[in-house]
Design brief:
single chain; about 725 residues; alpha+beta; Gyrase A, domain 2; 8-stranded mixed β-sheet; 5-stranded antiparallel β-sheet; 18 helices; about 30% helix
Length: about 725
């Protein structure tokens, strides 16, 4: 009975108080864990007690408010099922083969259209436009990474996490005062916040760029940009005593030492920095693996961590395992990890996921209200909280294989499904939005199987997982069918993707091109190191950061900038545009660059000044080079992409539209992703805010738009998706 009390407290806090009112990739920062963990649990306890005392009055008030709010709605329930990156062209192909009956029924009863995407055509930009109904000039998300104008160095665009502004030092201890700083990178207002202001409740699950979570009348679980417990965007760990593995060049992972003697492997988990001690360093937690198992299970390895034993089957993931990192004075922070035993002999090889923030005892607020993450953990089990939870890096860097990646990806997908169907059941009147990442992550890593001559196929299996993408789309079709079975007859269902997918065969290093063409100047002894390590900024006129952005080294804006605003800046941009359009790939016999967009002409709004000066729209097949993303150089401007990450969407937006299905017709021929938020608002009878660029697609009394043939040229598609204004 006692164990049920915490769950009851959490559920009350979620559904009465908060629910009703209330080194890997460049990370948002570390040093947050211990102070934030204590803060969250303390506030959770206070909220729960307050909720239990006031819930009858609040329940009556909120029930009356919602009944009035929905009186003018044309839909009592709207469900938006987001399938990140599902490609409309592949969807049509598989529908024609009869593989997607539920998508086909949805198209016949309602509609199926290409969905215009954003510039850049990537998740942080597109999903920000989805939730705000605005172009990037109004929400300020232009890419995964953007440059810090003071240092030129790349940083995460969506979130920065830092320690509290003040602290007290007592001897060797440092006691922070207050909670960590977490400024929100994405500006403007999500449509679910506007719904809440009009009494309409929403459940929002894992929509990218919702971290840090913002207050609104509903519940939300954050997604992209939620860090791991080390403060990065996903640092995985690899334990191996194979000397050959010393040759691995890990970027997003860390290879840690392991000793094996008498059938016992010994190693440590590398945890977060101890921010409560001066120069505290990392907190490491030891563990052992008994390779001879136990007397009861002699054939199964056993992981021993913090005096607890966990079976460790070969090439199978463990469940989520709790790991406590103790800072001293009885203070600890908890993370969760999964282990995967790759090999026991002749060499020991063990993979461990990034250390996810424990949703049951979160070290950072990963949900709104804070108790919602705890409710999900208590009722459905522990789950991944990392923003980029599917570990593409370990496959890309040769630690894991495709089979291990598929198992992990589908396991995380199953966690998301449980949350999604729980949300549909718990939100019969209101809005449910859930984004599934599997469609994006799996296509990134398996697109090479769709092209026999893809450079990434060299030396790799080309048959075992040849149908992985086909099976993925069939799984998504089944998800659509199960969703429809759960909905009411008058519910509105929208199934959409933020962009499409195409092969990524060749990479273009924009920084190398800028050097070769005199726009970037290096020091006397260039090494091509990352993060602009060899750049002479006193002579450099332009630099590239992220997946297509080029920035002028502008006087008065960048530290040490030399390009004067006005006529000189315009001349430099014109020269770069002309030069990139003349670039030619002899191997592929084509021009890699479709279009180069001038940021001043594309973006509009209060944050347009923060936009890239130029954005490169590559033809499908060519994408910005890996090293160029973070300010590095390559020997050649154009080279093969031979990594497992063989598919992408960071191409010219008209070539990679998303898709839009609905069980209702829409009134526009050329829907854009900015239209979806206004559409949901309109369905609930809420006036669309004047700052939105998008327009409702299902206005009352409007005739349905005719279906368009899907054979437009690139230029026709360009006009359709409205790249110049969105």
């Amino acid at each position: 009975m006692g164990s049920l009390v915490p769950v009851a407290l959490v559920m009350c806090a979620v559904f009465v108080l908060g629910g009703r009112s209330a080194h890997a990739y460049i990370g948002p920062g570390a040093g947050f864990a211990f102070v934030s963990s204590f803060f969250i649990l303390f506030v959770t306890f206070v909220l729960a007690l307050f909720t239990l005392m006031t819930w009858p009055i609040r329940w009556i008030f909120l029930t009356l408010r919602r009944s009035r709010a929905l009186a003018g709605a044309r839909a009592k329930q709207v469900v938006v099922l987001g399938l990140d990156g599902q490609d409309p062209e592949l969807t049509r192909e598989f529908m024609a083969e009869g593989l997607l009956p539920n998508f086909k029924k949805l198209a016949e009863e309602g509609c199926f259209h290409d969905l215009g995407t954003t510039l850049l055509a990537e998740s942080p930009v597109a999903w920000s436009s989805f939730q705000t109904g605005c172009n990037p000039g109004k929400h300020r998300i232009y890419d995964f990474l953007v440059p810090n104008r003071k240092t030129h160095l790349p940083e995460l665009s969506s979130a920065q996490v830092g320690p509290p502004a003040r602290s007290i030092r007592l001897g060797k201890y440092v006691f922070p005062i207050g909670k960590p700083s977490m400024p929100v990178g994405r500006k403007s207002v999500p449509f679910w916040k506007t719904l809440g202001e009009h009494g309409v409740f929403s459940t929002i699950l894992r929509v990218p760029i919702t971290f840090p979570p913002e207050k609104f009348d509903g519940v939300l679980l954050s997604a992209m940009s939620v860090p791991d417990l080390k403060g990065s965007q996903g640092t995985y760990f690899y334990y191996s005593n194979d000397p050959e593995d010393d040759k691995l060049a890990l970027i997003s992972g860390v290879k840690l030492p392991v000793t094996v003697q008498d059938k016992i492997a010994r190693a440590e988990i590398s945890g977060p920095e101890n921010s409560l001690l001066r120069d505290g360093g990392e907190i490491n937690v030891p563990f052992v693996v008994r390779l001879d198992g136990t007397k009861k299970n002699p054939g199964i390895a056993v992981l021993v961590l913090d005096k607890k034993e966990y079976p460790l089957a070969l090439r199978e993931y463990t469940p989520w395992i709790e790991v406590d990192f103790k800072a001293g004075l009885g203070i600890k922070v908890r993370g969760v990890v999964m282990f995967y035993l790759i090999q026991a002999e002749p060499h020991f090889k063990l993979y461990m996921t990034p250390i996810n923030i424990d949703p049951g005892k979160p070290a950072l607020p990963v949900s709104h209200p804070m108790t919602y993450a705890i409710y999900l953990a208590k009722t459905q089990g522990t789950y991944a909280t990392l923003g980029l939870a599917e570990d593409t890096s370990s496959l890309n860097e040769g630690v894991m294989d495709e089979e291990a990646f598929l198992k992990q990806t589908y396991q995380i997908h199953a966690e998301r499904e449980r949350m999604y169907f729980d949300a549909i059941e718990k939100t019969p009147r209101g809005c449910v939005v859930c984004v599934f990442d599997i469609t994006d992550r799996l296509q990134h890593m398996f697109f090479r199987y769709l092209q026999d001559d893809h450079p990434a196929n060299a030396g790799r299996d080309t048959t075992r997982h040849k149908d992985a993408i086909r099976k993925l789309y069939i799984e998504m079709d089944d998800l659509v069918g199960r969703t429809r079975a759960k909905l009411r007859d008058d519910s509105v269902l929208v199934v959409m993707s933020d962009h499409g997918f195409k092969p990524f065969r060749r990479e273009v290093n924009l920084n190398t091109w800028l050097v070769d063409n005199g726009f970037m100047v290096l020091k006397d002894d260039p090494s091509g190191r990352d993060m602009f390590a060899d750049v002479d900024w006193t002579k450099t006129r332009a630099y590239a950061v992220g997946f297509g952005g080029i920035y002028l080294n502008q006087a008065g804006r960048e530290t040490g900038g030399i390009v004067k605003p006005g006529a000189e800046a315009a001349a430099v941009k014109s020269e770069i545009i002309d030069g990139l359009k003349k670039l030619y790939d002899e191997k592929e016999n084509c021009a890699p660059v479709r279009e180069v967009y001038d940021g001043e002409n594309v973006y509009h709004g209060p944050y347009a000044k923060d936009a890239p000066d130029l954005v490169v729209g590559f033809r499908p097949g060519h994408r910005v080079a890996w090293s160029s993303v973070t300010g590095g150089l390559d020997a050649e401007v154009i080279s093969d992409n031979d990594r497992p990450w063989s598919g992408d969407h960071n191409f010219n937006p008209p070539d990679v539209p998303g898709m839009l299905f609905s069980n209702r017709k829409i009134a526009r021929e050329n829907p854009h992703i900015t239209d979806l938020g206004p559409t949901v608002l309109d369905l609930f009878g809420v006036e669309v805010p004047p700052w939105c660029d998008g327009k409702p697609l299902m206005p009352a009394g409007a005739p349905p738009a005719p279906e368009k043939p899907q054979s437009e040229t690139s230029e026709e598609k360009k006009q359709e998706v409205g790249v110049p204004t969105a």
